[in-house]
Structures are given as structure tokens and as C-alpha cells.
Amino acid sequence: MMLTALGLMSGTSLDGVDVALIETDGRQVRAFGPSGYRPYSPAERNLLRQALSEAANLPQRDARPGILPQAERVVTRAHAEAVAAFVAQNRMRPEDIDIVGFHGQTVLHRPERRLTVQIGDAPALAKAIHIPVMHDFRAADVEAGGQGAPLVPVYHRALAQSLDREGPIVVVNIGGVSNITYIDGNDTLIACDTGPGNALLDDFMYRTMNQAFDAEGKFAALGTADEAWIARALELPFFASPPPKSLDRNDFAALKLGDVLPADGAATLTAFTAAAIARVISLLPRRPQSWIVCGGGARNLTMLRMLRERVGTATVEAAETLGWASDAIEAQAFGFLAARGLKGLPLSYPATTGVPMPMTGGVIARP
Ligand SMILES: Nc1ncnc2c1ncn2[C@@H]1O[C@H](COP(=O)(O)OP(=O)(O)OP(=O)(O)O)[C@@H](O)[C@H]1O
Ligand SMILES: CC(=O)N[C@H]1[C@@H]2OC[C@@H](O2)[C@@H](O)[C@@H]1O[C@H](C)C(=O)O
Q1: Using alpha carbons only, what angle is made at residue 180 by residues 222 and 258, rounded to the nearest 5 degrees?
Q2: Domain 3-148+328-365's class?
Q3: What's the pLDDT tens digit per position in 4-31?
Q4: 176 pocket-lining for ligand 1 (C-beta < 6 Å)
Q5: Is the ipTM reported for this complex over the cut 0.90?
Q6: What is the pTM of this model?
Q7: Which of 18, 48, 106, 352 to mutate to test the pocket of ligand 2 (most atoms within 8 A of CB)?
Q8: If you measure from the C-alpha of residue 179 to the centroid of ligand 1, how many angstroms do you get, rounded to a whole number?
Q9: Cβ-count burial 263-276 (b if 16+ within 10 Å, e if not)
């Protein structure tokens, strides 16, 4: 049965809530609907940054000390507003949507402690928007000993079905953190987080230039990357360990650039993201021939160039050039995952998150 599913994603970049509608049976996508975006205000973003730092020592996933209850209310309200605006703009009624996939905001990800925490009150959201809401997508995977991330690979696979590209294909998502899905025509999907995405660069741009991000990568293009710094950073054990593996947004926050010119710092962090993505090549069964880049990082032309320089003769394309709605892919993915969860289909596999067996997930909250 086809479902109309609305996906909601608030990613590790803390930039806002992405909204996207798809029609799917959880295996294929029949149609892409419209998408939308509700940015966080600067005050909301600061609150979320503080929530992430206060969440660093959370003992369990339902603990909400300090500022977290306030942050959770803000996340829930922002999502309710995002859905209300989306429904109104597209002249829809709540009953036109079968299911909402609500990722929430990750504030802590520690799979080695069987802990991953996404804030956002799904029952309150369901009541506010009058649509059933599926949430807690990562919990069952982590409880079963998996990484709980990345979860978009099943969606990347569905998108790649219609592609005419020489394999193996890698779909790269460059959000706050970067992750890849490796598709080589066999049944086995391989996936992992690869390292930083935009988060280190965004934090650096904010600190040094008071800008939220490096638009189109123009600032990094003015600088020179410190290759020796990057080579040292890539010696961290994370980069050599094979997939599956995942990261917390702040896992690399302790890496310090030292005293550098801002443009050189931006160039170094941009090249670090590209080099960390390319580092995964030697951990994959075969060398990818085609790289498809999505997420906000696909708009960073310097990052794309630096990735191209590191993947040999393989092609590197922004997902947008294939007609994929790059910014909406993660939100679409959570609509797709909600449909899969409703049908009891797997969200993750041993080679995507390290779960012992294919695993479904998601918890439903009804209005
Ligand atoms: N025009 C642009 N030029 C350069 N970078 C951009 C541009 N637009 C967005 N970005 C980068 O993309 C980021 C947002 O990416 P995205 O929305 O994919 O992240 P996310 O979904 O929050 O993260 P994650 O995938 O880790 O959950 C911004 O913080 C910024 O760094
Ligand atoms: C714990 C968590 O929220 N992880 C995010 C984060 O952002 C990118 C990367 O790290 C990925 O593993 C994941 O998000 C995407 C949507 C995923 O699960 O596929």
C-alpha cells in the first residue's frame, strides 16, 4: 500500500527543520512531493548548542536535566510550526498525510554505551498537528548493539535504483557530520559516518568571522590547507576502523587549528572533511567509480573540488544535478523510514549500523 509520508529532520548542523513529502510503500518512491524549511532563530540555535553541551554526560536517554526540557519544547514547537506552515502552503489537510517521520534533535550519540538521545516530544507533536508521528528511529538499533546511525542508507539505495551510473556508487551526505552509503549492485549495503561534515567549519566560521557557514566555500577558496595538520588528524583511530561506525557531532571538537589566518583555517577544515570522506575508500570492498554528494555540503564548491582531487578518476556530482532535491533528502528519508517502520521492514542492517540482524524500528505516537 502506498502511503503519503511527511519526513522531518533537524540535523547536527542545528540550522533548522527540513520538511519533505513523499509517496512510498517503504520500498520504492512513487512520487516526490514538495519540501519546506523552518530555520531556527539565532536564540533557538544558541539554546540547542547549549543543550548539546549539557547533554554530554547524560546517563540515560530519557533524562532531561538543566536546559534540556526547554530545548525539547523549542524543538517540538519548531517542528509543529514547520508542519503547520507546510500543510497551509501546499493547501493540504492533516488527513491527507498518513504518517509523519520525526527524527528529533540528536543531543548525544554514544552507541558504545548503548545510548543515543534525540529530543522532541512526539506525542505532543502528534496532538498539535493531528497526524500520527513515528519517532525514536535509532533506539532499537542501539539497544541491539548497533551504531544507531546512519539510517539514510536504505533511502539512498531506493534513490539509486533509478540511476544509470557505473558502480560502485557512493552517496555522500555532508551535513554536520558526513556519512556514506556504498552500493555495488550486490545486496549488501555498506554504510558509515566518515568524519566531520560542516560542523567544525561552521563553528570556526562563527568564531572567527561571525558567519553561520562558508557560503559556496568562497572563503576557504582564498586560503591554503595545512596538509600536515590534516594528515595528523587522520591518524585518529576512528578513521582506520572499518564500517559500520558512527559519530557524535562533537567528537572532533577537541581538534584545534592553532593560530592560523581565518581563510587558511577554513581551507584546512574543508579539506579535512574531503580527506576524511576519501579515507573511507581503502575500507570499502571495491573502489567507487561514482560519488553523489548531498546535504548542505554539496553547495560548498570548494569542498566538492577538494573531494574530486582525492578520489582519483571517479566522478563527483552534486545530487541536485541528478534531479535529487539535495537539501530535502534527509527529510524524505525519515518519511521513507516511517513508512518502513509502519510495515515492519528493516531500517538498518549488519553492514550499515552493525546490528546483529536486520532491524526495524520507530515508535508511533497517535494524535
Ligand atoms: N550555500 C551554501 N554554501 C556552503 N555551505 C552550505 C550552504 N548551504 C548550507 N551549507 C552547509 O550545510 C549545512 C547544513 O547542511 P544539512 O542541512 O545537510 O545538515 P544537517 O541535516 O543539519 O546535518 P546532518 O546530515 O549531520 O544531520 C550548513 O550548516 C552549512 O555548513
Ligand atoms: C546520531 C545522529 O543523529 N547522527 C546523524 C549525524 O548526521 C549525519 C550523520 O551523523 C548520520 O549518522 C546521522 O544522520 C543521518 C540522517 C542518518 O542517520 O543517516
Answers
A1: 40
A2: alpha beta
A3: 999 999 999 899 999 999 999 999 999 9
A4: yes
A5: yes
A6: 0.97
A7: 106
A8: 13
A9: bbbbbbbbbbbbbb
